[in-house]
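debug: dumping io for the single-chain case to check the tokenizer round-trip. Nothing else runs in this session.
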Amino acid sequence: MPGTPSAIPVGTQFSPDLIDFHAFLQALVEHSGDREALVEAVWRPAVRTSPPAKAPTHRRRRLPLEAATQYGLLEPGTWEATDLAHELLVLPGEELFEAFARHVLIRLGGLRVVEAVQQMKMDALQVTGDTLAEYLTDQGFAVNVHNTAINSMRMWLAQAGIFSAKGWDVDATRKAQLVGLDDEAIAAIVGMTDELRAFVIALCRINPEGDYPAAEIRNLAEAIVGHRFARASLPNVVLEPLRRAGLIEYETKGTGGGKTSILRTTPAFEATVLEPFIEHAVQSLDAALTAYYRKPPAQIYTELGSGDTFIKGQALEAYAIRIMRLLGLRFVGWRKRAQDTTGRAEIDVVMA
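debug: decoded output
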């Protein structure tokens, strides 16, 4: 995909085998806003754990700052240390790498990379930096092949235990701990409609304790998504799917719809986890792929007969991917996808 910007940050001269991360952050904060001082500081022996074999060129000397900017540690243009850099600097040892890995997973496409590795392994595909980059790019998530970006990201995630020290083995338990959601919860949220996700974001912002009127959550959700929800269908279209996802319980006193519905969140509902996940991570994930690799075939066949067009549309996508795997083909992408309003009933998948 020539000319397409990378979906993950550059990582040249910015990896844990080259720098002391705490010292690097300290340099960013100490020289915040002074580009030339920053360039000097990040190449000092206190920061560089692996000194360069020869003096770096003018261009190479600036690469660590470019990476720091794309990783969210420096403000673009001003070279000022970000709030994230300040927050990370005060964290000790393992907490530092955990917090940075969580940032990479949720906000920088790291979760999509990890999910792709898991999918490739399920399909018995060889995983290397290049094959993974090709796999992701074929799906529309552009990652440059023969580039340090994906390997640098792997090393940062390995520091927090997501990947093995060497190679591409994923620790699913560690992944769930850092994301705050297990694979089933991730698939459920990624597969939600825009309206459902807007409702969850609204619920996160209000974060009610105890019983709360669903209509008030709906009003805020409408402002987020930009259109009105159908009043009478709120329990069936919104509340029931969220109950099945384990996020809420609710009661309704009659056919009046959302006006009479009362909800309460469950222990599985964590606003500090769900809101950033929906606002940042979901957009990097492919709902059909994420759901398919977590859904047993029997469930796919059952949902193909669903009267809910959205559920049926998702089942059609999952079925297309299942046929692809049975035929030994490789997923390339969705050539045309209907919008949520049509239940994604028109499926056009490209395989090779």
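debug: round-trip ok. The chain has four domains: 21-91, 101-180, 190-274, 287-351.
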